[in-house]
Write a structure and sequence with these properties.
Length: 354
């Protein structure tokens, strides 16, 4: 109820009558009911009344058992979401509604049908609430981090000449699943040799060879909450170029971590990592931002990049992931999931870097 009340307080200040969403992550955030990612659900939170969760028959029983702090209504076998939403909004006499996730067809139908109701798209309201994790959320993320560490340990152990990238991914995902992960936070990345220069290299049927750079990027999910880690392994003895790349990224990762704390601008943390890489003349190969927020989604607020104007706050959870990618040669990325405290950061992922 605390999260719903926080949302209502924000809505009241903005003179908004209610909130509407089809985003299953946000629905879980407010109701503790988690459905499949493409489930057709609608949550209405009026400022001066109880939340209403509209579900199809396939989700109704589970929602009735799991959802909290809301009225659950079955829209029936015909799937009349539009008619039900219009009915609820009219009965609640809401004239100004903010939403963050609707299908385009539903939005256009609502605007056409309800000419006296103003629908305003604003995903930032709930995104700001989700930025600061409460104790329950942090407990889930810590558990996801522990499972992720087990996954990367299995992956690093599996990396050897003669094994396919997809076999390593299977070992990683099995190690996390068998210990309680509810899935993967994103598609597991195992990118070797020249493919390690692809930041989102997922995994292929390429066979690991001696001398390869191998990037493992993975994350577990626990009770809906994600974690994110990347490690880079060099198969066999590293070349001088590989060692220079690895050491530069490791240094950038360490120096950026030292600056992570509440009150610092995210672009300033990003700049620290780039400065380290610039000393080795490798900064031009750092082609993405330093990090991103982590929670119910693997990419959420805040963003750590040179273009961001955001400031870190206590209880933010973010990634710290400098990387360099040299086309045709390979790449190195090192990443941890970090909890922001008042005066420092705390690495929630703790797996070895080698």
């Amino acid at each position: 109820m605390k999260r719903i009340n926080k949302l209502k307080t924000v809505l009241e200040k903005g003179e908004i009558d209610g909130y509407l969403t089809m985003n299953v992550k946000n629905i879980y955030y407010f109701t503790e009911y988690m459905d499949i990612s493409n489930a057709h659900l609608n949550l209405i939170i009026p400022v001066d009344n109880s939340p209403i969760l509209l579900t199809p028959p396939l989700s109704y029983v589970a929602a009735s058992e799991d959802a909290k702090e809301c009225h659950i209504k079955n829209i029936g076998a015909q799937g009349k979401f539009f008619e039900n939403i219009v009915k609820e909004i009219r009965e609640l006499k809401m004239k100004k509604i903010v939403f963050d996730a609707l299908t385009m067809s539903l939005y256009l139908k609502l605007v056409k049908e309800m000419k006296n109701t103003h629908f305003n798209y604003d995903p930032s309201i709930v995104a700001k609430l989700r930025r600061k994790k409460d104790n329950k959320e942090l407990g889930y993320i810590r558990k996801a981090a522990a499972l992720t560490d087990k996954g990367v340990e299995a992956g690093l152990e599996a990396v050897k000449p003669g094994i396919h990238e997809y076999e390593i991914a299977a070992e990683i995902e099995y190690a996390m699943r068998i210990r309680g992960s509810k899935g993967t936070a994103f598609e597991t990345v195992v990118a070797s040799g020249p493919r390690s220069a692809y930041p989102h290299g997922v995994c292929s049927d390429r066979i690991i060879r001696k001398g390869d750079l191998v990037i493992l990027d993975l994350g577990a999910i626990y009770s809906g909450y994600c974690c994110d880690i990347t490690r880079t392994k060099i198969v066999g003895n590293p070349s001088s170029k590989q060692l220079r790349m690895f050491n530069a990224v490791k240094k950038a990762h360490e120096e950026a971590f030292k600056t992570l704390r509440a009150g610092i601008k995210t672009r300033d943390v990003d700049a620290v990592a780039r400065t380290v890489l610039a000393k080795e003349k490798l900064d031009k190969f750092f082609i993405h931002g330093l990090g991103h927020g982590i929670g119910l989604e693997i990419h959420e607020a805040p963003t750590l990049s040179s273009r961001s104007n955001e400031t870190l706050e206590v209880r933010n959870v973010v990634s710290n992931e400098p990387g360099i990618y040299i086309q045709g040669f390979g790449g190195v990325r090192i990443e941890d999931t970090v909890l922001i405290h008042k005066n420092c950061g705390e690495n929630l992922t703790k797996a070895t870097y080698h």
